[in-house]
Amino acid sequence: MSTQPTQIRFARPAQGVPDNDTWAVTHEPVPDPQDGEITIKVRYLSIDPAIKGWITDKKSYIEAVKPGEVMRGFGVAEVIASRSDYFKVGDFCTGFTGIQTHATMDSRQLRKIDPNLAPLSRFMGGLGMPGFTAYFGLLDIGNPQPGETVVVSSAAGAVGHVVAQIAKLKGCRVVGIAGGPEKCAYLRDDLKLDAVIDYREGSLLEALSEAAPKGVDVYFDGVGGETLDAVLMIANRHARIIACGAVSTYAQMDAPQGLKNYTLVITQSLMIKGFTMRDYMHRIKEAFVDLLTWEHEGKIVFREHILEGIECYPDAVKMIFAGKNNGKLMIKLGD
Ligand SMILES: NC(=O)c1ccc[n+]([C@@H]2O[C@H](COP(=O)([O-])OP(=O)(O)OC[C@H]3O[C@@H](n4cnc5c(N)ncnc54)[C@H](OP(=O)(O)O)[C@@H]3O)[C@@H](O)[C@H]2O)c1
């Protein structure tokens, strides 16, 4: 495990899923903070499917990372030097720290967190961006009502397993879609979902029709592509479709595919609404308090998949696109 400052830089564009050649490792010293800046030591780094979009130069919600730059990434970090009135040494923070062990940054780019409220890893997962994404996407856009059927894809992942549990809390019939028997067993046996579908086995449409005999009222979509097309086929009139992600299409961003069943959006009066967390940054306290309370009350669990050492970043990225993560994938950095 690295003890000197280490940065993972974006080296060159990737065809398909990023691989080892996409990244370069450097060991540059960390500058002292100037007025308003803090120096941080990163404790956890988040691995997100969005990584592929962040290194692809096309219209998006955020500018693409340029070759040679430190790779973008969320982190949880400890303040080790400060020239900010807001942060003192020993405080903890989260935000876009970059994929690096240390950094000196404008303190306004980071959000203070209280490590007494939860383990640090939680701020990367259920009490961080994935949890907030699940909360606002499902409740604000999906507006699920008791007795309605909610379908969730990437259901065993960082966002999906939180969505599934909130939907259960709201009294819905919840159908989870995930890849492989282990993930499906987790959703069925541990999270007690009403039905589970392994999308790698058999016909997805047949499985969906069986799992959602009354049709689908809310679909939380992390996958896009064929899965979204299949759910459209059984969506009820006025169903709400939360367009959170399209991970099945990220490896082929140069050749995007359209929806085959688009006309059902019209004929079934469906709503498809996209969002990113920047739409909700002003409301994250709401989500944080509810998610923390539900965890304390034993109503929700947050699954974390923790790797160790910044050197494993290239493999961690491959893992998330191969579906080898169980819950929120993150890297713990050494002391
Ligand atoms: N809008 C926002 O603000 C926002 C914020 C966070 C995340 N997201 C999006 O939400 C989705 C889930 O993100 P996450 O962070 O929670 O990741 P995650 O679900 O923990 O991990 C990604 C999962 O995607 C599935 N996957 C990978 N390649 C796939 C493919 N070709 N086809 C179908 N499934 C595939 C795998 O699960 P299986 O083994 O089940 O296939 C993998 O475990 C992503 O689309 C992400 O971009 C959006």
Write a concise keyword list for the protein shown above:
about 325 residues; alpha/beta; Quinone Oxidoreductase, Chain A, domain 1; Rossmann fold; 2 domains; 7-stranded mixed beta sheet; 6-stranded parallel beta sheet; 9 helices; 15 strands; globular; binds NADP nicotinamide-adenine-dinucleotide phosphate
Query: Quick one: biggest sheet?
Result: 7 strands, mixed
Number of domains: 2
Helix content: 10-25%
CATH third-tier fold name of the largest domain: Rossmann fold
CATH architecture name of the largest domain: 3-Layer(aba) Sandwich
Strand content: 25-35%
Low-confidence stretches: none
Tally of DSSP helical segments: 9
What is the CATH superfamily of the largest domain? NAD(P)-binding Rossmann-like Domain
Order of helices and strands: EEEHEEEEHEHEHEHEHEHEHEHE
Give the cofactors and ligands. Answer: NADP nicotinamide-adenine-dinucleotide phosphate
| CATH top level assignment of the largest domain | Alpha Beta
Instruction: Tell me the distance between the termini.
Output: 9 Å
Helix-strand category? alpha/beta
* Cα-atom radius of gyration: 20 Å
Mean pLDDT over the full residue set: 96
* Shape summary: globular
Number of E-type strands? 15
